Amino acid sequence: xxxxxxxxxxxxxxxxxxxxxxxxxxxxxxxxxxxxxxxxxxxxxxxxxxxxxxxxxxxxxxxxxxxxxxxxxxxxxxxxxxxxxxxxxxxxxxxxxxxxxxxxxxxxxxxxxxxxxxxxxxxxxxxxxxxxxxxxxxxxxxxxxxxxxxxxxxxxxxxxxxxxxxxxxxxxxxxxxxxxxxxxxxxxxxxxxxxxxxxxxxxxxxxxxxxxxxxxxxxxxxxxxxxxxxxxxxxxxxxxxxxxxxxxxxxxxxxxxxxxxxxxxxxxxxxxxxxxxxxxxxxxxxxxxxxxxxxxxxxxxxxxxxxxxxxxxxxxxxxxxxxxxxxxxxxxxxxxxxxxxxxxxxxxxxxxxxxxxxxxxxxxxxxxxxxxxxxxxxxxxxxxxxxxxxxxxxxxxxxxxxxxxxxxxxxxxxxxxxxxxxxxxxxxxxxxxxxxxxxxxxxxxxxxxxxxxxxxxxxxxxxxxxxxxxxxxxxxxxxxxxxxxxxxxxxxxxxxxxxxxxxxxxxxxxxxxxxxxxxxxxxxxxxxxxxxxxxxxxxxxxxxxxxxxxxxxxxxxxxxxxxxxxxxxxxxxxxxxxxxxxxxxxxxxxxxxxxxxxxxxxxxxxxxxxxxxxxxxxxxxxxxxxxxxxxxxxxxxxxxxxxxxxxxxxxxxxxxxxxxxxxxxxxxxxxxxxxxxxxxxxxxxxxxxxxxxxxxxxxxxxxxxxxxxxxxxxxxxxxxxxxxxxxxxxxxxxxxxxxxxxxxxxxxxxxxxxxxxxxxxxxxxxxxxxxxxxxxxxxxxxxxxxxxxxxxxxxxxxxxxxxxxxxxxxxxxxxxxxxxxxxxxxxxxxxxxxxxxxxxxxxxxxxxxxxxxxxxxxxxxxxxxxxxxxxxxxxxxxxxxxxxxxxxxxxxxxxxxxxxxxxxxxxxxxxxxxxxxxxxxxxxxxxxxxxxxxxxxxx
Length: 939
Description:
Helix content is about 60%, strand content about 20%. By secondary structure, it is α+β, with helices and mostly antiparallel strands. It has a 14-stranded antiparallel β-barrel with strand order 1-2-3-4-5-6-7-8-9-10-11-12-13-14.
């Protein structure tokens, strides 16, 4: 055994060097990547024994491309050279992870696993290479030697026989097979198992008919067993194969002499002498001639014992002679008949039963041998040889039953082996029963078998993994994962990485299934369990991020996304997930946009990244627009359009930003890209018409006011015509002409108005009016509007009015407006100082207005109201009624409509009530009803 182990170790070392050289050659010729200049350069450094320089170069490349399979392989090659096998294994496994078809990495891994005595793992890599090159002789020899050094001689012998059949002319394989056969035969011979010795010797002759030693072994074994007929048969076969061989001639002579078959012996010697045999054959011929003469004188003992046995079958001596003679002459049926007659005469015995079994074995009647062995073992349960034979036969029968699909029969036979077999036989039977239950989908019974095996071998990780797999197939994933976690807890650090992959293969499908079934809590719990086992697993982190999103747990989503991004700095999908998580928090939306902007600058053609950047820009821009930060929103949108220039939604938002900046021509151009639904179409068209109208430079407006007091049917009317011009800087210049005709003449008022936006938040309005009569003689106003907050606007204004009487009026106005979605609510207080003949009095008027916009500011409905001791400015400017220092109230309502892209109109009705005088301590009031119609045409 020691010699064989030393032999195997030497062979493994030799093959390891061969494979290492093969790897070096493959690398130097570029078989892994013919066009990889870096690999060739590093190989050149290695070949020049400049190992450290080669390693540094490989590590520098991996810093840039950590998933480069070839660079991982070159780093593994360095670690093999420096005998740092754990590091070599890690790099080579990574190489296969990123390049599964990298055969050179697998060859290096064979060397690593062999040097670290992890033979099973080395065999796995050899098998993977054999899938690609199934007839590569060196790989087969490597696999055989690995089996030998791991102690699996049976599998090694089987593979050696197989490869020897594929390469029958290979002298090295023939030599190996001869050596192994000799070793096996010597072991069996030393153990005293003659039948097994004969079986191995015969097998050796069949496998190696050109080897003389095989024939000598089988002949000697038959002679030792007393089977001279078979010894003679193989002596003759040997002489046919090796004519004139003196050794085989001597064997045949010895057998014939023992059987007293001198006639055949002398004839054989005469033939060999005539063929030119040695002089010694003549001497032997003379010797055997004399022995033949002596034997003839003694008579035929067989005939005499035969007569005695016929007369007295119970005679022990006669039975022994006749029985042995029949067996020696291969008259097995006759031998069985003699044995039965003797048994009937003297009764049964263990000795006779064993003789019968021996005859059937020589007849090679396996069914009868199996049946008789079972019966004899039942009769003699303490006979260890019978027990061993019974167990061996039952194992063979169970395998045949399984091959024939008789699973139940096979299981029953394996249970018999467990009952009577030794430790190794029991293990084989348990493995057979486990495989039978598993193949027939009787999973729970297979688990019971594994429990029994684990009871005897509680630390067997392979058995525990099989049990985990069975629980997983049953759908009992919690048990499966718990057992696998126990395996991971007991595994060595170098095995843990490989086993973690197996854990992932179990848990990942369950998480996917739970997510598809919307069992998100269960899926989250499994993800947490997964990360507890492998906290750096990319799939687990990604699943956890997605599940947190589905659960609307945005804090958890952000936490896991940050962790993943920190672990995998160059992984763009995790950058995307981090940004998506940040998008759910308004305070981090800007940071999310900056993160994606940086990444899209580095990776402008990464489509998922570009898409996420676009959607984030839409959210961020919408928030900026809501806060009235139109310029910043425009800059953000333009940045995104640089990478996704065909995005209609971004273009629409750009148009919305231009609308907020009051650049209506650009707003009209970009908002056209929006694709409205059927329900949105009419409103969208109305809004586009409004933008188109606001983009025109010129507007002509006409209006007509009709006023009537409640106690008088007489009408007071005022007509207005105006023209407005939009300047490129946003300023609007308006000229307005008001006309009224009354009983005592006509009045005309001319007015100029200028509105100017100074910044996106601040604008101003100034107007001046002069009239000949009926209107204010002079009226001028100035106001400043300030967008204080995104939804608040403040207004402050001052004015002066001169009446055609001696009166004059100064006013100070303060207003505020709040926007709530499509609603505008505003309030205004007007403070007046009425001056006449050196005296003055304070007046005021408080007004409220509510306005609801539909699609655009030109489509609206509104309601107004005011109260004070002065009429409001509009009524005062038209001089329809001056009711100072008395209670004035007003309510009104109106609407506006954008009729087309060029035309809009509105109408407003109001009802004024004011005190006229005080009669007998009782106040009297008067009503005034107004209707104002207006139309604007833009071009």
